[in-house]
Amino acid sequence: MTPASLLESVKQRFSVLLNTDTNQFNVFLRQALQTYEASAGCWKVMRLESAESPLPSDYKEKIICRDRGRYHVSVFVDEVNKTLIVENPSRASFPCDFIYYTNLSGVDLDTYELPNECEHLVSKYLYVLIAIPEFERQARISAANNYDTSAYPSQAELQAQKTEIETEMRNQMVLPNVRVR
């Protein structure tokens, strides 16, 4: 699922949306992706078949590289030329797995496929980010018209829910294992 389609699915969970500003929704989406990236981190594995490979477009930071025997392999990341260079390739048993953090907040919202493990928490967090100003607006309009506002969650409840999701994200962080020679 792309970030844009995730946003659309979250927006459909609201029966009424007073906010129709596409830019504001994209800001919320980027914020949700950044929060997930900072709290849980999202990593991918890229297969290296040779000593030099192109840098992935969603690369943020190197975690580790390991060879077929799951031993550590030293890799130089040339961000200027956008390449990965295996140092001492004669010692590596190819293919190698290059494991790296992804730059979720910098991806193309319309084409990038989100990893499955982040979709649930990002969508929950995005829902709360949209709900905070949305329910506050709806409650103000209801109060101005002397309608009951008890159906709307309070700002404190929404902030607590947001904090709880951030904690869930931090608890989801997992790092790959490796053997050292």
Summarize the structure.
By secondary structure, this protein is of the alpha+beta class. It has helices spanning 3-11, 22-39, 116-144, 155-172, and strands at residues 43-48, 52-54, 59-66, 75-78, 83-86, 96-102. The protein starts with a helix and ends in a 9-residue tail after the last helix.
Can you walk through the features of this model?
- This protein has 181 residues and is α+β, with helices and mostly antiparallel strands.
- The chain has helices at residues 3-11, 22-39, 116-144, 155-172, and strands at residues 43-48, 52-54, 59-66, 75-78, 83-86, 96-102.
- It has a three-stranded antiparallel sheet with strand order 1-6-3, with no helix packed on it. Strands 2-5-4 form a three-stranded antiparallel sheet, with no helix packed on it.
What does the secondary structure layout of this molecule look like, with pairings?
Elements: H1 3-11, H2 22-39, E1 43-48, E2 52-54, E3 59-66, E4 75-78, E5 83-86, E6 96-102, H3 116-144, H4 155-172
Antiparallel strand pairs: 1-6, 2-5, 3-6, 4-5
